[in-house]
């Protein structure tokens, strides 16, 4: 296992949760600021670490890459471990550093959103995100603009899904804050949908890419 790749995934995921969840805590109700915080982190991380690990910083994205046979299972397992570790460490740092941490930016369903609705939103939005990743970064068609395209996709996903599910699209983004937020804030009974939804969305995007959208070599 390449240590450089694992360290890149750890730092990248740490940055996403530290900045993204931190912005949510500090900017309650300011949807645009929170969306931009997440999107800009993704842009920065992609350009910093994309050439090292691919800058997945999301277990669902790694699953998509595994399904598309872009990485090996051993690499995926290593990525998952370090992504979750980075997220957990980031959440712990937020709790220790923020003067007021509230719910620590946990991803929870809005009061009027059902489990089925929340699951569907997470599936659809993660599909959009991973679809962009495959058709820009993986295909190579977007060149140096892939990081911007991916970051902007995350921004528009959060602008729509933030008021409904807080738009996790990322099991690590959900787990880290949930561990340290306390039982009064984290919806542990619903946490499964933040794992299942993103994984289904990523899998669908990967299958669409390898089955339909990926350019085939012309013999």
Fold blueprint:
Layout: H1 3-26, H2 31-53, H3 59-67, H4 73-97, H5 115-138, H6 146-165, H7 171-181, H8 193-213
The beta-strand count equals 0
CATH topology-level fold name:
Glycerol uptake facilitator protein
Task: Give the overall pLDDT as a whole number.
Answer: 95
Q: What does the largest sheet look like? A: none
Distance between the termini: 35 Å
Write up what this structure looks like:
With 219 residues, the protein is mostly helical. The chain has one domain (3-213): Glycerol uptake facilitator protein. The chain contains eight helices and no strands. Helix 2 (31-53) packs across helix 6 (146-165), helix 4 runs parallel beside helix 7 and helix 5 crosses helix 8 (193-213). The radius of gyration is 16 Å and the shape is globular.
Key attributes of the depicted protein:
219 residues; mainly alpha
In short:
This protein is mostly helical and 219 residues long. It has a single domain (3-213), classed as Glycerol uptake facilitator protein.
């Amino acid at each position: 296992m390449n240590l450089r790749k694992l360290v890149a995934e750890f730092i990248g995921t740490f940055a996403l949760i530290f900045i993204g969840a931190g912005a949510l805590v500090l900017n309650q109700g300011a949807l645009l600021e929170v969306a931009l915080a997440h999107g800009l982190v993704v842009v920065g991380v992609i350009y910093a670490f994309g050439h090292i690990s691919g800058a997945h910083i999301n277990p669902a994205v790694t699953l998509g890459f595994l399904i598309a046979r872009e990485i090996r299972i051993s690499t995926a397992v290593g990525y998952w471990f370090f992504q979750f570790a980075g997220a957990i460490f980031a959440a712990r740092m937020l709790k220790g550093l923020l003067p007021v941490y509230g719910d620590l930016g946990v991803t929870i369903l809005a009061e009027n959103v059902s489990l089925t609705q929340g699951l569907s939103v997470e599936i659809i939005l993660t599909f959009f995100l991973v679809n962009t990743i495959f058709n820009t970064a993986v295909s190579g068609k977007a060149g140096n603009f892939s990081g911007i395209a991916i970051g902007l996709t995350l921004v528009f996903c959060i602008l729509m899904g933030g008021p409904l599910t807080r738009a996790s699209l990322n099991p690590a983004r959900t787990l880290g804050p949930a561990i340290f937020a306390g039982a009064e804030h984290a919806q542990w009974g619903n946490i499964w949908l933040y794992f299942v939804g993103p994984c289904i969305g990523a899998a669908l995007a990967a299958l669409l890419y390898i089955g339909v959208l990926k350019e085939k070599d012309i013999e």
